[in-house]
Amino acid sequence: MTENREWIGKWTINFGEEERIFHGVLTYSLKSGGELKIAKEGAHWDEFFLLDQSTLIPIIKGYEYSTGKGITLINSLIRNYSVSSGVKITILPNLIIDNLDYADKHSLQFLTATVVYEGLGPWLAITGVTKSFKDDGVKFTGVTMEYNQPESLKFDIQNLFKIQIDFGYQPGDSRTYTGYSLKEVYYTNFIFKEPGANIHDLLKWVEHYRRLLTTLFGQPSFITSYSITNSLDITPKNTSTLYYKNTIDGFPNNAPTGVRMRTLYALLKTPLNDILNKWASYHLSNDLDYVAWIASKDFHRFSEETFLEVARSLEVFCGIDTDKKLYSDIEKKNLKKAIKDKISANDFLNNFNTEIASGENVERFNNMLEKLLSAVTYADSLSLRRKIKLALEQIKQKIEAESYEKLFPDSKSLINKIVDYRNYYTHYDEKSIEIYQGEELTIDQLVLLARKVKKIMLLLLLNDLGIPMQQAADSFIRLEVS
To answer: Which positions fall inside the Apea-like HEPN domain (predicted)?
Structure first.
């Protein structure tokens, strides 16, 4: 995935119920991802006139002439085409799987995925390299280098699959003062149970754990090597290689560095196995999966929507603990029925409804009733304002007063500011318009506010994963970023 590739071959595509064979070139570049340019002689315009850029091609089967290997393209979009004496089509595949012959849907079930997450090495800080400097008693004469492979790290993830981190090496940069160097490589293997995971679920799990590393690093982690196989034999001849457009900031050369990381493996107070399993439970919840995604995003491309996403993720995460089931559905149903019965009997607030539920006031009265019944429905839910207040109180209890003041010097006004600006940018309610219209935040100011919201959310999330809140707070203060 870190070098440009080209495949020349024939490509089989189903248009409707007909199978067509084309000849052409598939390229992969680091900048633009995959592009397939194919042609077919003797084609007529009426065979392809329904094609447009919204046409999704689930599977394209390829055969490379030079190697005889199969290539499978997943979820491709047509970029453009032209028809004269033949047809020329440009297609953008979402995913390229090299060395895979597609037969049916079972061809996309895999037992093992092996990826290289950049930044994992500095975070683990586990090395097998030992260097010794030699001298003859008077002057430096050279360096000896020895490699002893560290023992693999193995984790069982909620009876779903296993994660195994293997250690290896490859030649490093030869432009060193010794003339030779080793680059240690950290392979993360996802080992699924029979009959394996389908390609779409597999991709989601691998991405989910990339987001965990990004959250733990505080820097974007990205994948530089990605292979899959439908067996437990992960030697190159049995594996297929994945290629796709990588849009993660820093790819492929600016890997995360250890000196700027939020956390380090050696400083964890909670076993890594527990953290990995807790993170898996987030993926199994739609709400928490959303929170995990937002937690891993950075502010490289910022807009008002970014602020709203962070505010929403904080609201969702706080709601997991605070929105408890205080009242049963039966209790709510009975209370709403009692309110309606009282109204029907003109026995509600001393016949107040009789006066307003007539003439022009009927619609207003019905709106009031709807809001009243809605309040009963959502009686278990706390407001965002209350959730942030409880979150800050929890943080204040778990970290030192000096740290709290450094992170949230404006804590007294922060809650109202977050909620009111959330309301202003979401639905422009009367109160927020009255307060903030004409005093909208600049982008720089909104970035700072979003960072504070994200700090609250990350302190809670990292603590939920098992990382002490004071340790996370110290990291935020040291790095001065969220």
So the answer is: 308-470
Tokens describing residue 39: 């042609």
* Cβ 457 vs Cβ 215: under 8 Å: no
pLDDT of residue 40: 84
CB 228 within 8 A of CB 82: no
Asked if residue 55 lies in contact with residue 72, where contact means CB atoms within 8 angstroms, the answer is: no
Q: How far apart are CA 475 and CA 262, in angstroms?
A: 5
CA atoms within 13 A of residue 278's CA, in its CB half-sphere = 15
User: Which conformational region is residue 346 in: left (phi greater than 0), alpha (psi within -120 to 50 degrees), or beta?
Assistant: left
- 8 A C-beta contact, residue 12 and residue 61: yes
* CA 235/CA 179 separation, integer angstroms: 30
- Which pair of structure tokens corresponds to residue 254? 């600016």
Can you give the pLDDT at residue 56? 86
What's residue 45's pLDDT? 58
- pLDDT of amino acid 482: 45
Q: Which fold has domain 5-102?
A: Thrombin, subunit H (2.40.10)
- The phi and psi torsions of 76 (rounded to 5 degrees) equal -100, 150
Is residue 408 helix, strand or coil? coil
Residue 61 phi, psi dihedral angles, 5° rounding: -100, 125
Q: Pick out the chain residues at pLDDT < 50.
A: 482
Q: Is 33 left (phi over 0), alpha (psi -120 to 50) or beta?
A: left
Three-class DSSP category at 186: strand
| Domain map (residue ranges) of the chain | 5-102, 107-284, 287-323+382-479, 329-377
Beta bridge partner(s), residue 38? 24, 89
Residue pair 8/23 in contact by the 8 Å Cβ criterion:
no
Q: Which residue has the tokens 């943080």?
A: 395
CA distance 104 to 316: 40
First to last CA, the chain: 29
Measured in degrees and rounded to the nearest 5, phi and psi for residue 12 equal: -110, 125
